[in-house]
Amino acid sequence: MSNVVFIIATPNQSSRLIGVTQYIEKQLQAQGITLTTINVASLPADDLIGTRFDSPAIVAANALVEAADAVVIASPVYKASFSGILKTYLDLLPQKGLVNKIVAPVFIGGTIAHLLSIDYSLKPVLSSLGARLFVSAIYATDSQVTRSGQGDELSFSLNDELAERLDNAIQELFTELKLRAAAPAQAATNL
Question: Structure pTM?
Answer without folding.
Answer: 0.92
